[in-house]
UniProtKB/TrEMBL annotation:
Residues 44-151 form the ER-bound oxygenase mpaB/mpaB'/Rubber oxygenase catalytic domain. It comes from the Bacteria. InterPro entries: MPAB/Lcp_cat_dom. Pfam families: MPAB_Lcp_cat. This is ER-bound oxygenase mpaB/mpaB'/Rubber oxygenase catalytic domain-containing protein.
Length: 255
């Protein structure tokens, strides 16, 4: 049986970890508010009006690619491509290729930093393996001008961060929506977690300096996992109505 992602891949280890997946999207949620192509979110209105539901939907697509047999994974990628093409057709414009690359680069970057924050430092071959999985995803989607190896990606990631970010009205509005759907306390926690995830350039554009001991809390959270109380923490961090969706993210944890 052939899989899009090898059964022993570090990518599977990352994407079956509910904590890591939530951190990946926490970091991406911060950075994408600054993306110069963020106006595309407002054409469909789905993320601005219901960011948490959109998060869980996106996670489902991503995990279907990571854990499915090759043909099913490719079908999922093709479906994602078709959805975007439909949005482009409706708007009568084409999503910039660099914007697709930006999203792909976020998935690579936050997969690495989220796992390292929660578990351990990754070896260079493991980082190259993460890059390769998302590179193949990008190729399947027909993306152009993708770097072909991890070292070239590091360079291009920096270039994208320097050229494709701006703070504007969409940035402010999206964070307002995060706060609306999470509530004040959960929103505060989200911001503090984002501060230790995002690249320096993103941090400077979005946040003020914080003395909140987020890393200490993460250490306590990891200790809580050894006591089997981490699911309690997840319930505290996210609204109760999403408990089933959170559980669904972790359905691959026993693999």
């Amino acid at each position: 049986m052939s899989y899009f992602v090898n059964e022993k891949s570090i990518v599977r280890e990352i994407w079956k970890n509910t904590d890591a997946v939530l951190l990946i999207f926490a970091g991406s949620a911060a950075e994408f508010t600054l993306n110069k192509a963020v106006d595309w979110l407002y054409f469909t209105g789905k993320i601005p009006t219901n960011p948490l539901e959109r998060l869980f939907s996106t996670v489902e697509y991503a995990q279907n690619i990571v854990f499915a047999e090759n043909d099913l994974a490719l079908a999922t990628i093709d479906k994602i491509t078709q959805i975007h093409q439909g949005v482009e057709k409706s708007r009568g414009q084409t999503i910039p290729d660099w914007a697709y690359r930006d999203v792909l680069y976020m998935l690579i970057d936050y997969s690495i930093c989220s796992f390292e924050l929660l578990e351990r430092k990754l070896e260079t071959p493991e980082k190259e393996e993460i890059f390769d999985v998302f590179f193949r995803l990008g190729i399947r989607m027909g993306l152009k001008n993708l770097p072909t190896n991890y070292n070239d990606w590091l360079i291009d990631r920096t270039i994208h961060l320097e050229n494709n970010l701006q703070k504007g009205e969409f940035t402010i509005h999206l964070f307002e929506q995060y706060k609306k759907h999470l509530g004040n306390s959960r929103y505060f926690i989200l911001l503090e977690i984002q501060k230790i995830l995002v690249p320096k350039i993103v941090y400077k554009m979005l946040f003020k300096t914080s003395n909140f001991p987020t890393k200490t809390l993460l250490k306590l959270y990891k200790f809580g996992k050894t006591l089997k109380v981490d699911h309690l923490v997840k319930v505290i961090l996210l609204p109760k109505k999403h408990k089933e969706s959170i559980t669904n993210i972790g359905k691959y944890e026993t693999l």
